[in-house]
Design brief:
The structure is a single chain. This protein has six helices and 13 strands. By secondary structure, it is an alpha/beta fold. It has two domains: 140 residues, Rossmann fold, CATH 3.40.50; 66 residues, ACT domain (Alpha-Beta Plaits). The protein has a six-stranded mixed sheet with strand order 2-1-3-6-12-13, with helices on both faces. A four-stranded antiparallel sheet has the order 8-9-7-10. β1, α2 and β2 form a beta-alpha-beta unit. The termini are far apart. The chain binds ribulose-5-phosphate.
Length: 225
């Protein structure tokens, strides 16, 4: 039998995430193709979901199609569960996110949520973060100064062509930085004036990783560190 396709793996991960949806509670929902599959599975249980806080305009549209009301983060008191994908996840459940340019809202909602359930296929699991180019959301006027600062840190930044974020900003994709201390790198990048968010999720890591691979789906809680 041939290996399952990426789309099938996304479906398996998304299906496993349904067990974490708390009936009657606000749901946080990230962004990306894996999340889109997850949202498509919510329609049959929409009556149990009073509303969702979404990390992107495209997720909002998908949730509306599934019949789930969209709520402003400022209008909700708590989000028990946030479900989102990732571009890379390491053994400590730190992440690189932002391949879909929604990293800022994703980090805001993830941080405001009690439990972050990360849904990935096995190709996203890495020993160390940093192969996937690191997305950084940048205020447009700071693009050149931040590119120079990143070069001084050893990185090469490229403006993502044709992309404006939901917040009206640009994305730099950065290669070549050292990821030996991801939490420190996350902080240092955030110190650069004009950086809105960087795609390292080390301070707000995932709590649960649902990973779909050729051998099936694993559901793991973050190791205590
Ligand atoms: C969007 C993200 C996504 O979660 C990440 O890019 C993974 O997306 P996909 O599920 O399409 O592989 O961070 O900003």
């Amino acid at each position: 039998m041939s290996d399952p396709s990426k789309e099938t793996l996304k479906l398996h991960a998304a299906q496993a995430a349904l067990q974490f949806v708390v009936p009657g509670a606000i749901l946080g929902v990230g962004s990306g193709s894996t999340v889109n599959v997850f949202v498509s599975l919510l329609e049959p249980i929409r009556s149990t979901i009073p509303g969702a806080v979404a990390a992107s305009k495209s997720t909002e549209a998908a949730l509306r199609t599934a019949g789930i009301p969209i709520l402003d983060l400022n209008a909700v008191e708590s989000i028990p569960v946030y479900v989102d994908g990732a571009d890379e996840i390491d053994p400590d459940f730190s992440l690189i996110k932002g391949g879909g340019a929604a990293l800022t809202r994703e980090k805001i909602i993830a941080t405001a949520s009690d439990t972050f359930v990360c849904i990935v296929d096995a190709s996203k699991r890495v020993k160390q973060l940093g192969t996937f180019p690191l997305p950084i959301e940048v205020v447009p006027m700071a693009i050149n100064s931040i590119t120079r600062s990143i070069a001084r840190m050893g990185g090469i930044a490229t403006v993502r062509a044709g992309v404006v974020t939901d917040n009206g900003n640009l994305i730099l994709d950065v290669r070549g930085l050292s990821f030996v201390d991801t939490a420190l790198l996350e902080s240092e990048l955030n110190q650069l004036p004009g950086v809105v968010t960087n795609g390292i999720f080390a301070k707000r890591r995932a709590d649960i990783c649902i990973c779909a691979g050729v051998d099936g789906v694993t559901v793991e809680r973050r190791p205590a560190t």
